[in-house]
Design brief:
CATH topology of the largest domain: Arc Repressor Mutant, subunit A
Protein name: DNA-binding MarR family transcriptional regulator
Number of domains: 2
CATH architecture of the largest domain: Orthogonal Bundle
Oligomer: single chain
Organism: Novosphingobium sediminicola
Keywords: DNA-binding, Transcription, Transcription regulation
InterPro entries: HTH_MarR-typ (IPR000835), MarR/SlyA-like (IPR039422), Tscrpt_reg_MarR-type_CS (IPR023187), WH-like_DNA-bd_sf (IPR036388), WH_DNA-bd_sf (IPR036390)
Pfam families: MarR (PF01047)
Strand order of the largest sheet: 1-3-2
């Protein structure tokens, strides 16, 4: 029995009037994300000397295409975090030599964050390992189950937005 079901069983005993089906489903969803990140994804990032948020910045720059440069605003909107958090990530990556800040030719007051050659090489190595690790994390599911889960999660997320 997983922790979500255990909690629901306890609520059923204490408050049998509550319908805990959603509690179980969302509890399992949250725990699955937490366990996969903690036990599978984060160790891979650490193996490349990166924190998860730093990997996210490098990956966002890499998938943006050459010249692998975005504004800090584009980066923090892609990551859905505060601008202050993004500034800290960029600072750490710049100090490590993986990104540089450059003048933005489209906005003389702004800057672009760009991958360095070292940053590009690192993310190209890391993303291959990351994708293989994600595949391994989902190997317990059959192809049809993965497709169904993906569609259901897409529907759930779409229903939460505006």
């Amino acid at each position: 029995m997983d922790r979500a079901q255990k909690a629901a069983d306890q609520w059923a005993r204490e408050r049998p009037d509550l319908d805990t089906d959603a509690m179980v489903l969302l509890g399992r969803l949250g725990e699955a994300a937490l366990v996969i990140a903690r036990d599978r994804l984060n160790p891979v990032f650490a193996g490349f000397g990166l924190q998860p948020g730093e990997f996210d910045v490098l990956a966002t720059l890499r998938r943006s295409g050459a010249p692998y440069a975005l504004t800090p605003t584009d980066l923090y909107e892609a990551a859905m975090i505060s601008s202050g958090s993004m500034t800290n990530r960029i600072d750490r990556l710049e100090k490590a030599g993986f990104v540089t800040r450059q003048p933005n030719p489209a906005d003389k007051r702004g800057t672009l964050v760009a991958l360095t050659a070292e940053g590009l090489a690192l993310i190209d190595r890391a993303v291959g390992t990351h994708v293989a690790n994600q595949q391994a994390a989902l190997a317990v599911l059959e192809d049809g189950e993965r497709e169904q889960l993906s569609r259901l999660l897409e529907k759930l997320l779409a229903g939460q937005q505006g």
